[in-house]
Amino acid sequence: MNTNKTQANMYKLIRELSDVLGIARMTVLCLDSFIESIRLLKCRRDQFDALYKDLAKTITECQPSIIPLMRLLKYFEEDMEREIKPEMDMATVKQVTIRLLKDRVAQIKRNTGQVTENGLAYVKNRDVIIVHSASTVVINTLIQAKVKLNRNFKVIILDLSERTRQSVQALSDAGIDYIVIPAHNLSHHIDGATKMFLGAMTITKDGKIVAPVGTAGTVSLCRHHNVKVHLFANTLNYSIRSAAEQKIFQAEQEAQIGATDFAMTTHSHDLVSLSHIDHIITEIGEVAADGDLSVPPVPIRGKGADGQDAAAFNVGFQEMAPASS
Q1: Whole-model pTM?
Q2: What are the φ and ψ backbone dihedral angles of 135, each rounded to 5 degrees?
Q3: Under the phi-then-psi rule, with left for phi > 0, alpha for psi from -120 to 50, and beta for the rest, what region is 22?
Q4: What is the pLDDT, as a whole number, of residue 309?
Q5: Please, which contacts does 309-315 make with residues 24 or more away whose CB atoms are closer than 8 Å?
Q6: Residue 210: strand pairing partners
Q7: E strands, 159-249, in order
Q8: Strands 195-199, 128-132: parallel, antiparallel or unpaired by DSSP?
Q9: 287 sits in which H/E element
């Protein structure tokens, strides 16, 4: 069995699922799958730690890094150190492990739900909102603004295949007015737009966001036309590492135009400077884009669930160490 090829295929699948589902739903899916694997696991007590380390190594080697999942698993490991005792039998270890993983699933669901709630304040009547590879949080914010607040606005969806289909269906079901256009035709519609909403996979410590391909160009066009860019991000998406350390997947493939053969170099995700983002909406409210990104962000507007501040959501502010190469 070719382990390297198997891992490469798995990472490709994870990238594709992340593109379709968004990073928050992808993280929940991974944790739910982990829970199910623990339920089905049959091994001796002394084999458990090694099996988990294999899984953790696989996760840390994903391209690009899945920062929310890495951070949640780091917290999970700390939970396990506190709660798993040497005298526990395998059945008890499994029960405790599943309970702790469910706690982390609840955490990301709670956080993303609060981002949606906080985002409602940024949808106004008569808005024309551009969405590029709209995250689950962005789509839910738009739906809730229509359904709960009866806001009247229009959405410009930039076509991104499978994600577009999901966005169209969700907005249609909510009765939201929209049009779908190719991203490269946005210049024909930009003058009527009032703002742009987007999600991100990661916010890096050196002030970049890791976002779906095409985001950088769309953000640049919005900036040029003074269309305010709104980033909706769970604080679990903040990384203690730089953009260069995010393991963005790079590939070369053979291409041909006429009689000319050449190698095409591609990257799985874009990098966008936070200096191009006007508003960052998180579960603790709006946070500054120019703060110290090596520490938990502090809200400049709004509060999170139960009025908690950043520290309550970001205890430790750390993530799993990347696997050594």
Answers
A1: 0.83
A2: -75, 170
A3: left
A4: 44
A5: 309/284, 310/235, 310/284, 313/111, 313/235, 313/283, 313/284, 314/235, 314/238, 315/75
A6: 202, 271
A7: 177-181, 195-199, 202-203, 208-212, 228-232
A8: parallel
A9: strand 285-287
Q: Is 128:193 a contact under the CB 8 Å cutoff?
A: yes
Q: Model confidence over 25-80: pLDDT tens digits?
A: 888 988 998 999 899 989 888 888 888 888 777 777 777 778 888 899 999 999 99
* Averaged pLDDT of the chain: 83
- DSSP state letter for 271: E
Q: What is the DSSP letter of 320?
A: P
Q: Which of 142, 162, 139 is nearest to 152 (CA)?
A: 142
Amino acid present at 263: A
Check if the beta carbon of residue 131 is closer than 8 Å to that of residue 156. Answer: yes
Please provide residue 258's backbone torsions phi and psi, each rounded to the nearest 5 degrees: 65, -125
Question: Does position 149 have pLDDT exceeding 50, yes or no?
Answer: yes
Is residue 46 within 8 Å of 94, Cβ to Cβ?
no
Q: Is the dihedral of CA 294, 295, 297, 298 positive or negative?
A: negative
Report d(CA 260, CA 226) in Å as an integer.
Answer: 41
Beta strands (DSSP E) in 135-193 are 154-158, 177-181
> How many whole angstroms separate alpha carbon 319 and alpha carbon 324?
15
Which residues partner with 280 through β-bridges?
231, 287
Q: Are 319 and 239 in contact (CB under 8 A)?
A: yes
- Is the separation of the CB atoms in 237 and 68 below 8 Å? yes
Amino acid identity, residue 15? R
Tokens of 302: 């709004």
Cβ distance 212 to 164 under 8 Å? no
287-316 pLDDT, tens digit each: 887 755 555 566 776 654 444 444 444 444
Question: In Å, what is the CA distance from 111 to each residue of 67, 154, 214, 262, 305?
Answer: 15, 26, 26, 45, 8
- Lookup: tokens for 318: 């750390």
Cβ count near 80 (within 10 Å):
16
Tokens of 37: 């694997």
